[in-house]
Give the backbone structure.
Amino acid sequence: MACGFGFWDRSGVAVLLMLLSALSSSFAQEADSGSLQLSGQAQLAGDFYGSSSSPTGFEPSVRPSSLLRLVLTPTVAYGEFQLPITIAVSSKQTNVTTPFAPEQSFQQFLQNPLNTVSLSPKYGWAQLHLGTQTPRYSELSTGDVPGFGVGAELAPGPLLVAGFYGTTQRAIQPDSTANIIGAYRRTMLAAKLGLGDRELRYVDFTAVHVADDTTSIIGAPIGFVPPQQGSLASLATFFRLSNQLSLKAEGAVSLFTRDQRSAEFAGNDLDFLSPIQPIRESTRLDVGAMASVVFNENFWGAEAELRYLGDGFVPLGYPYQPTDLFELRFSPRAQFLDNRLILNGTIGYRINNLSGTNLQTATQILGMANVVAQLTDALMVAASYTNFGLRNNIQNDTLKIRTVNQSFSITPSYTLRGESLLHTITATVALNDYSDANTLTGALNNSNTTSLFGTWTTAFQAFPLTLSATLSSVQNTFSGAELSLLSAAIGGGYRLMEGRLRPSLRLGWSRNTFAGFTPDNSLTLQADAAWSITETLTWDLSGTTTLYSYGSSRGGGSASEQFLRTGMTTRF
């Protein structure tokens, strides 16, 4: 069944807004009697896009021609009972972390992580989660993977019981001819049992199991990610030793199969775990651990963190977490002169390939420092410095890698107050130097970037007019070539009808020059308006037109884009 939203025409929008207004009025009357309450907001928004280029087809469209979004976040309350509802859906399929579904069914529409449809009824210490949710149980188990299913949290006194079961990855049939990657359907079962006061001390035990359904797609092309399966157990604890000092630690063990199609492996050291999941040739058992201590006084403090993740350890709820590493980080902070001088920074050390399974081991050193100084009532200066280094243990000069990336920026900001005008001037100077000491390729990878940014804004005291101007310049030198980016913009905004209508206009220009090619130019005109129709109903409108003129690097073509975004928001 294909999923579309063709009914979202103008009449449908009007009817929905009228219905929401009527419902809010009805619930407001009920609230006066002290029985039922409704609060939250609703938004209907649409994006409309068009483009053209010369010659025809020179520049492809980068957006869908139309996209409608509905966002509803009401909360119904009756005594101790609360029902938060979240609905955030779009008329077109948008994907970031999951493959594209060419014929999206209604079930796949609900399971898309970028759509949110959830109900979370709560009564006292019990809460149920239905629909889209992200179970955040601990730093080494699950907390970064959204799913569609059912969950619950029970917290009677010092006891905490939580659970989740649902789909975290949709089944997408691969199609190489249509460049569709495809994916197996993946389900997650997670449970958490905790005991203690969340503010003082607690101990949590978490168990997670994920599995790909090998029957959810037909066939798999070469290079397709194989069906996987994994289980994880975690023990986390927190202690507040004093008002200033706290300690947090977690240890976890994972059992992960990278390919369910690999043969079962009997007669090995992991046989005792076979009741949890089949032990195969691609199954690994490994551990992960982290610990941190935090000390905070009113004007100074520090945090230290240690983390170890084994080569075979897989944090099932954090798919992009690197493993096979040891990491140590220390972050102090201090405030002086009645908070007019603020210092903070981080120094860290990481070593990977602890197992020695890769050809080389790399060490990384990270140093970062930030300073914010309020020199006078009008002048504030912020500065930062970052040093990142990477080095491997290969002795052969042609294979040796040693890189250092250094960044420095300083940002002064000055505010000038007059009888009729308020001026704010901000400037930023940023320097970045990347050095590659690899004997073989270093000359090609060195890079230097100098960036200059400046903004000026002024506000009139006698009437509600604000004006602004920005200017930026970026010079990047690498591989013997130079890339130059220059941009400027001016704009202004006004407030009408006692501030209920707020129009603004902005004109921007940019120029990009690479090596010996003639430059690319673009000109953008943007108009915005926000109208508070009533105290609870707001209409927003934004329109942009951009003209592109490409230089010799793009063959001298040209293009234009038109983008319109409008929406209405009501609070109740």
User: Anything to note?
Assistant: The chain has a mean pLDDT of 86. The helical segments are 10-32, 106-111, 442-445. The chain has three helices and 29 strands.
